Amino acid sequence: MVQARSVKHHCGLFGVFGHEDAAALTRLGLHSLQHRGQESAGICSTDGERIARTAGLGLVGEVFNQARIDSVRNPVAIGHVRYSTTGSCSEANAQPLLFESAAGPVAIAHNGNLINAALLRRGYEEHGHIFQTTNDTEVIIHLLANPAHQQKPDPLAHVLNHLQGAYCLLLLFPDRMVAVRDPLGFRPLCIGRLSSGAVVIASETCALDIVDAEYERDIEPGEIVTVTAAGISSRRFGGETDGRKAACIFEQVYFADPSSSIFGENVHLVRVRMGRRLAREAPVDADLVVPVPNCARCAAIGYSRESGLLLGRGFTTSHYAGRSFLMPEQNMRDLVVKMKLNVIKEAVRGKRVIVVEDSVVRGTTTRGKMGALRKAGAKEIHLRVASPPIRNACYFGIDFPDSSKLIATGRSVDDIRDYLGVDSLAYLTLEGMLDCVKMPDDQYCTACFSGNYPVDVDEPVDKYAMERRQLRMFK
Questions:
Q1: Hey, what's the torsion of the CAs at 358, 363, 366, 372, to 10 degrees?
Q2: Intra-chain end-to-end CA distance of the chain, in Å
Q3: Distance between CA 283 and CA 354 in Å, rounded?
Q4: Active-site residues: which are they?
Q5: Which of 3, 136, 309, 379 has its CA 20 to 30 A from that of 30?
Q6: Is the peptide bond before 293 cis (omega within 30 degrees of 0)?
């Protein structure tokens, strides 16, 4: 089992064009992107005329057995792993979604969150459209199928200019694969190529590595990339952003795999720099630096190197426990986390321990970890967090849309320290975090830390709003 994360991401995308084992390669790519979504997985493939779909709830290895993959020998496929940020975890919401329209079949996979999806959906429902899912992605299909949009010189670009928020898309038509990145570039998306010449699209470069694809370039913000038998073509949309970007800094802090390169630099090296900067900003006299597995290991390496303190192992992890975020009750989630993370008592007993975390969101899981360290006999516990306090909701695909549930909202660092039960607590400053990444400060979205949103959110984003509306409509 993949270790559950306390913060949930949205999705991972992977596609292959021009390889006889496209579906098998897509399954491998999705395996490497499993950290981006663990609720459901799906693959759509085409033989040039029809599009076939297989999707289900669970991890990639649970949804796709070898026999199922071996039965599909189409040369083009797209795949998706999902964590729900709009709409619930259900079979109907598993992606890619597949639809038939007057223009023919189309499959779509989406990474991100559309902040105007509910508004667009209400408009279509009022005109008699029936939706099959409760996620934001289906709105794009209804826009594409609109006859008025189909008559435009570039229907897809016209539709994309109606969308607000974060979106990387993979669309599959019988004769082509299309990749899209929103004009602000919230999420990463890249192009690679196999030695055979087949084209690969992936959310992260770690997925290219697993299929031995050579990285070629990132898809640019506001770019539409079309892959056909004739090759790759590109066009732009969304020019009104005037070159502004909003790359999600939390990808570097937490979400992306350390082996990936996103937004022009390697994730592991960025996190090591964040750990080094944290050690300079918040030094403390101690015996041992301990990372919270698995995401904080890179930052802990940096903290240890900069401080000169020994890097040790204070926790052991189990990869065989269930996925805690799927548990319906908090007490059950806490038990599963406890099963996953166990303190190595002999390593921490009587020691002054610096615990390095990548982020603290709601605080309940972190509090349990610190309590376990104390119970194991740690003499002092100094928590160092390799990112600033998260005080603001995210509306662009991270699952904390309610700021009232964030531990740092309305609390001082001292208040949080007391709640977590540690001897000292320090966060990396916003300035320090931004100094550790490559692009200019104004090219990142830091809204969850700073409150500066790159897109105005006129209507609160509610994960289950579409489902409540659907229930009301059919009462």
A1: 170
A2: 40
A3: 10
A4: 11
A5: 136
A6: no
The pTM score is 0.90
Beta strands in 255-331 (DSSP E): 261-262, 265-266, 288-291, 315-317
Residue labelled with tokens 């079949």: 105
Amino acid identity, position 302 = G
Helices 117-126 and 138-145, packing angle to 10 deg = 50
Fold classification of 11-244 (topology level): Glutamine Phosphoribosylpyrophosphate, subunit 1, domain 1 (3.60.20)
pLDDT digits (tens, 9 = 90+) for 165-188: 999 999 999 999 999 999 999 999
Cα(336)–Cα(38) distance, rounded to whole angstroms? 16
Tell me the pLDDT tens digit for each residue of 32-52.
Answer: 999 999 899 999 999 999 999
For 261-450, which CATH class?
alpha beta
Listed in sequence order, the DSSP H helices in 137-220 are 138-145, 147-150, 155-160, 205-210
Provide CATH 3.60.20.10 ranges for the chain. Answer: 11-244
H and E: helices and strands count for the chain: 18, 23
Write out the H or E segment, with its range, that includes residue 239.
Answer: none
- For 321, list phi and psi in degrees, rounded to 5: -75, 165
Could you tell me the two tokens for 240? 């009104």
